[in-house]
Amino acid sequence: MDELLARALQGVDPDAPDASIRIFLNLMAMVPWKAMTIWSVVFLVVGAGLGWLRGRTLEGVIWAAILGPIGWVVILLRPRPPKRPEPPPLPH
Question: Membrane spanning segments where (predicted)?
Answer without folding.
Answer: 36-54, 60-77
